[in-house]
C-alpha cells in the first residue's frame, strides 16, 4: 500500500516552537533536536500500524483503522481519542486541539501537525 515502509527524518520546520507548545521541557527538546527518528508504517487496506522509533530505544506506536475511533499517543505522551480519516490520499487526524496530516509526496513521507496554533512539518525519506 502507499504508506507501507520505513522512513527516516530528513528535514523539519518549526520543531522547537511546536515541541514547546506540546509542553516538552527545554532539555527534552534539545536532546531530540537532531534525532534521526524512524517511522515504520504498515498499511493493510484501511488498517494501519504506525510506529516512531527514537534513539535510545523509545518508541511510540499507534494502530488504527480509517473511519473508526481509536486512542492515539503523542510524542508528549498524551493520549486522546480520534477518528482517523483518509482525504485525497492523506491520513488525517483531527481533534479539538490537534490536527495532523500525512501523505506520500515524490516517495517521501510529509507530515504536518498543528497544535495550539503552531505548525510543525516533518519530511522523511524512505529507507526500506
Write a structural description.
With 128 residues, the chain is mainly beta. The chain contains two helices and eleven strands. It has helices spanning 15-22, 26-32, and strands spanning 5-13, 38-44, 47-53, 59-65, 69-73, 79-83, 85-87, 90-94, 98-105, 108-115, 118-126. The strands form two sheets. A nine-stranded antiparallel sheet has the order 4-3-2-1-11-10-9-8-7. Strands 5-6 form a two-stranded antiparallel sheet.
Largest sheet, in brief, is: 9 strands, antiparallel
> What's the total helix number?
2
- Secondary-structure element pattern, one letter each: EHHEEEEEEEEEE
Helix content: 10-25%
Query: What's the arrangement of strands in the largest beta sheet?
Result: 4-3-2-1-11-10-9-8-7
Question: In what range is the share of β-strand residues?
Answer: over 45%
What structural category arises from helix and sheet content? mainly beta
Distance between the termini: 14 Å
Overall morphology: globular
- How many β-strand runs? 11
Mean pLDDT: 92
Q: What is the radius of gyration computed over CA atoms, rounded to a whole number of angstroms?
A: 14 Å
Structural descriptors:
single chain; 128 residues; mainly beta; 9-stranded antiparallel β-sheet; two-stranded antiparallel sheet
Element layout with pairings:
Layout lengths: L4 E9 L1 H8 L3 H7 L5 E7 L2 E7 L5 E7 L3 E5 L5 E5 L1 E3 L2 E5 L3 E8 L2 E8 L2 E9 L2
Antiparallel strand pairs: 1-2, 1-11, 2-3, 3-4, 5-6, 7-8, 8-9, 9-10, 10-11
Amino acid at each position: 500500500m502507499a504508506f507501507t515502509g520505513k522512513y527516516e527524518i530528513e528535514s523539519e520546520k518549526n520543531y522547537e516552537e511546536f515541541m514547546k507548545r506540546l509542553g516538552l521541557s527545554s532539555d527534552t527538546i534539545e536532546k531530540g533536536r537532531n534525532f534521526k527518528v524512524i517511522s515504520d508504517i504498515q498499511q493493510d487496506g484501511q488498517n494501519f500500524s504506525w510506529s516512531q522509533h527514537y534513539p535510545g530505544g523509545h518508541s511510540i506506536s499507534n494502530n488504527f483503522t480509517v473511519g473508526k475511533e481509536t486512542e492515539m499517543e503523542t510524542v508528549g505522551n498524551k493520549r486522546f481519542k480520534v477518528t482517523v480519516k483518509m482525504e485525497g490520499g492523506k491520513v488525517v487526524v483531527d481533534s479539538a486541539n490537534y490536527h495532523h496530516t500525512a501523505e506520500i509526496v515524490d516517495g517521501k513521507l510529509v507530515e504536518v501537525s498543528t497544535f495550539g496554533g503552531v505548525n510543525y512539518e516533518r519530511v522523511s525519506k524512505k529507507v526500506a
